[in-house]
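User: Please run a holo structure prediction.
Assistant: Happy to. Please share the sequence and the ligand.
User: Here you go; the ligand is adenosine-5'-triphosphate.
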Amino acid sequence: MSAQDSLLYLDGITVSFDGFKALNSLSLIVGEGEMRAIIGPNGAGKTTMMDVITGKTRPDAGEAIFGASVNLLTLDEADIARLGIGRKFQRPSVFESHSVWDNIELALAGNRGVIESLFHKLAASEKARIEEVLETVGLTSEAGKLAAFLSHGQKQWLEIGMLLAQEPRLLLVDEPVAGMTDDETAQTAQLLKRIAKEKAVVVVEHDMSFVRELDVKVTVLHEGSVLAEGTLDAVSAEPRVIEVYLGR
Amino acid sequence: MRRLTYIAAALIAAIALLVPVLNLWVPPDSPFHVPDYLVPLLGKYLCFAILALALDLAWGYCGILSLGHGAFFALGGYAMGMYLMRQIGTRGVYAHPVLPDFMVFLNWKELPWYWYGFDMFWFAAIMVMLVPGLLAFVFGWFAFRSRVTGVYLSIITQALTYALLLAFFRNDMGFGGNNGLTDFKDILGFNIQAQSTRAVLFAVTALILAGFLLMLQYVVMSRLGKVMVAVRDAESRTRFIGYRVEHVKLFAFTLSAVMAGIAGALYVPQVGIINPGEFSPANSIEIVIWTAVGGRGTLVGPIIGALAVNSGKSYFTAAFPDMWLLVLGALFVCVTLFLPKGIVGTLAEWMAKRPAKKTHVPATAPATEAAQ
Ligand SMILES: Nc1ncnc2c1ncn2[C@@H]1O[C@H](COP(=O)(O)OP(=O)(O)OP(=O)(O)O)[C@@H](O)[C@H]1O
Ligand SMILES: [Mg+2]
């Protein structure tokens, strides 16, 4: 695959923090509509990679192309979000003093201009869409509740719901099942697989049973570069992967 | 909260009529008579209430803690003061037909260009909004684009008002230096000292306050208002869903500055003077205290805070002149420690908690229900 037929194309991305290379010439290609799992030990650079893609961190070197030709490295966070890249953070990050409904409404795809927002009237179609998203993430009964009062797992789902409402082409999901019960984890896997039918999804996760459940191509990161790529069984069999990650 | 805003707006509108009526048409020996001295004093409090409401939009709703809002208030005040100066005409001490007294005194021969147009009320009225608005826009444009936030932003707003204080003190700036602008004669042809003029100024101030209250109610309930709160609580998160945080802040800050300018313009004819002291950094900090005491992030709170603190100030500065700053400081510490949401915020929370007791059990249940 080349930059032409990929959705996300990263090449030679290097990020250093005071001389320490969090990403070291990282290259990664995600195809349109593909779902990809990223694993790797703590500090491997998984979150930093998402920071680069979403414009939070500027790399020292490398290329990041979205779609056919959009250079992500010249855009800021809001531009990149408007292009169609949505992100769920490692620590659940929702708007706590807004209701669950308002959280979804704010994320809803549409014009984000100041004047449009000031005079915006919620259309029936938007209402229906919010209800649909709430249904999908199982928060219909919590719609009126302040996000601050949700349980940890519910906040994770709300954030996934906000991602959905944004209708991005690419979803970056950082550790969606951290702190969830087994039941919740299994449900989240189903939810992400359903989402992946229509959109490209990149999931970072440590939970191996969850990754197995996703059943997609896996990329192993280590010390800021790709260590292995393939099915979970294939990468699990690689001696280098066992040594740095699975064997611990 | 929405109902509270409507009640407050209606109440303020009623006061706009009631105070002038009780002052002008109820005989002085009646217990319902509002004495003459009280009308401009109350009018002044209402100007401060507008100012606190303005700050609340930027700080309470959008998280921009401006410690320089006094500057926008003073600029609006100066714009109005310049109009009032030019209305004096030949009635000044030097009886110059065009130049205000202080310019004659400084031996100036002609009016500086930036005083042109201020003989017309409509022009001055536009400047009252344009000058503070433009300053806030330009200042905010650079600050918000460079992502200056938190305490750094507060410090540079404080520096802004301090710089203006020093500038307006200078005689060669052409704004009357140290003494500022005063000795006004009339406004729109009416004698500024006349009791009826003062009553009308009071009524206009109250009606503008009520109008701003309703306007902000609309703003904070709109989607933009929700985005502002999102910016306040989780700025970077708001960016990642595609909002231009700097534009949202710029809107809140600029609108807030325009409101502050209007408050200043209403203040000057009622107190009869504007001088550089209005730019003093301490003034801007007081505005923050009014807003905090009443309850930032509520619309009625800052109004109550401004009225309560300023009545207290009037009382203390008369009864125990040396004590006021101590009282103000203690008040701020107490509110920060014990009433972080201010009077109205705390009351609202308390009211919201009472009926919530009944629904306590179902409130935790859906956590397991959603997991099925
Ligand atoms: N802003 C920063 N300043 C300095 N070092 C940083 C910064 N952000 C990340 N790092 C370092 O870069 C390395 C990669 O961090 P990153 O958060 O990307 O790891 P990760 O793979 O997401 O790990 P985890 O599984 O723990 O979430 C870590 O060693 C981290 O300490
Ligand atoms: Mg991480």
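Chain A touches chain B through 44 residues (CB under 8 Å).
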